[in-house]
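pasting for ref
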Amino acid sequence: MGSYADEDVLLPNSVLGKAQLLLAAFESGADRLRLSELSRRSGVPKASAYRLAQELVQWGLLDRHGETYELGIRLFHLGQRVPASSVLRAVARPLMADLFTRTRTAVHLAVLDGTHVLFLEKIAGEANVLTHSYVGGRLPASCTATGQMLLALAPDGAERLAALTDQGLPALTARSVTDPRVLAQRLSRAAQQGYALEVEGVRAGYASLAVPVRLPGAEYAALSVTAPVAQVSPDRCLAALRATAEGIERGVTQKTEQRESRATVRTLRAPKASGVRPARAAG
C-alpha cells in the first residue's frame, strides 16, 4: 500500500506541503523510517527531507532515534483534540467495549480517507489482535467490510470507485476483490442490505461484518466486527452490531447538541465591545 501522498491529493510545492508529504510517508504502515526511505516514500529530495525532518523533530511532530525517524507524540495529542474525532471516539469506545464483551471479536470504527479507510478506534483481546489494523492505520477501502460499506453510502462513491479502478484494485489476499464489476455489485448489495460482509479479503481465515454509523451532517462512519470466518455472519453478529451503531449515533447526536448549546451560551454571554462616546464640543 502506498502513502497518502501519492494516492489522493496533489500537495503544493511549498515547505508546508513538503512537511506534510514527510508525515504522510508513515501512512504505509511503517513505524520507523531512515532518511533515504523518508525521501523515497515522500518524493521530497534527500537534502530537503533532512532539513525539514530536523525542524519536525524540534516541533515534536517527529522523533529521531539514531538513523531513523518516527511520528512524534505531539501528533497524537493534537489528534485527540480534533472535535469530530474526539466526540465520536469518546462516545463509541465504551459501547465498542461492550460489543467486544458480547461477541469476543475485534471491533473497529472507521471512516473513509480518500480510497482507504482510516481506523479511529479498535477494541480487541489478546487472542484476536490483528496486525493489519491499528488506531490511525489505513487499509484499502475495497478490501475491507468497513470500506465497502462506506463506499456504498458515500455521495461521491462513484468518483471514489473510479479512482480505485484507475489505480488498480489492490489485493491483500488471494480473495481480495480485484474486479471492478464485482466490487460494484458488492457495493450495491451493501447499500440495499445495510451491511457489508467481507471474507478473507484482508487476512486469510478471517471475516468482517460492517454496518454504517450515521453522523450529524449526513456523514458516516462504519462499525465492524472481525474474527475467524466461522464466528462472523449476519445471523450471529448483525443484531448486536446494529444496536451498538444506533447507540453511537444517539450518543454523538446528544454530545454534538450539548457542545453547540454551550457554544451558543458562551456567545450570548460574551461582553459586547463598548463604543466610544464622541467628545462633547467645548462651548
